[in-house]
Amino acid sequence: MKINTLFLTIAAVMLVACGTKQEAPKSEEILTTEVTDDQTIYGLACDGCNDTVVVFLRLPYNGSDPDTLYILDAVKQRHIMGKIRIGDKLAIMRNETDSTVADLVIVTEQLMGQWRHQVYPTLHERADMEGNTERQKIAQLPDSIKALLAIPKEYGLDILHDNMMYVPGSHVKHVTSDEESPVEYPIAQFYNEWKIFNGRFVMFHSTADSLGEMQTLASDTADVVLLEADSLMLRFKDGVRSYYRKVEVPKE
């Protein structure tokens, strides 16, 4: 009972300091994947945010007053990712030479959700088509196979709270029928954690070893270049990928 009372007291102090009646978010949890030298500032958006300044409480909350950083240049350069609303969690990169200015603000609260994009299959390599261009290969195909090439699959990312992530379909193994198909879809890399690191979006595939220590098996990094209510664009090393937000239709 004492623990619950203490938690409620801290939450109430945060709300008063931020000047909003919205519920305080859960404390940031430390990623099991160790990341060092992160210059990202994490905060909670407060009343007073506009196109000129961002007002926020630092997270984890330490009882301090809200901070204010100027964001006019970031707004002009479209470096405000998402729409800042009171109570949302933020990831902020401060200007290296002017500590009163923020160069980038990512509304991480708005990153949460199911993001999808369409992926089309490619042809399995066939010896009788070697030396032909892709167009020539497709021209030689029967209509039934051409129809298969026009069927996309939905790939994407489920970005969850507490820095957790899920990649739909990444755990599905190819079966014999897929291997015998004349077309193939790319294999989705599995990730189960994410973090904003120095203003970039980083995904991790982590698992516990025999001693219970978390080990990173794979990782990928992207820049957030657009974040809107229903659109997300991430720039990976091999190009920009556009996602749409998937909205679950309630069952009747």
Write the element-wise H/E pattern from the N-terminal end onward.
HEEEHEEEHEEHHEEHEEEEEE
**Number of structural units classed as domains:** 2
Helix content: 10-25%
Query: Would you tell me the overall average pLDDT?
Result: 80
Based on CA atoms alone, the radius of gyration comes out at: 23 Å
Number of helices: 6
How would you write the strand order of the largest sheet? 10-9-7-16-15-14-13-12
The CATH class assignment of the largest domain is: Mainly Beta
| Structure class | alpha+beta
CATH fold name of the largest domain: Lipocalin
Major sheet description: 8 strands, antiparallel
Q: What portion of the residues fall into strands of 2 or more residues?
A: 35-45%
Say how many strands there are.
16
What is the CATH architecture descriptor of the largest domain?
Beta Barrel
Please identify the oligomeric state: single chain
Distance between the termini: 40 Å
Uncertain segments of ≥5 residues (pLDDT<50)? 1-13, 20-34, 174-178
Quick one: overall form?
A: elongated
Task: Characterise this structure.
The protein is α+β, with helices and mostly antiparallel strands and about 250 residues long. It has two domains: about 20-110, OB fold (Dihydrolipoamide Acetyltransferase, E2P); about 115-245, Lipocalin (Beta Barrel), CATH 2.40.128.280. It has helices at about 1-20, 70-75, 110, 135-140, 145-150, 175-180; strands at about 40-45, 55-60, 65-70, 80, 90-95, 100-105, 115-120, 120-125, 155-160, 165, 185, 195, 200-210, 215-225, 230-235, 240-245. The strands form three sheets. An eight-stranded antiparallel β-sheet has the order 10-9-7-16-15-14-13-12, with no helix packed on it. β14 and β15 form a beta hairpin. The protein is elongated, with a radius of gyration of 23 Å. The model is unreliable at about 1-15, about 20-35 and about 175-180 (pLDDT under 50).
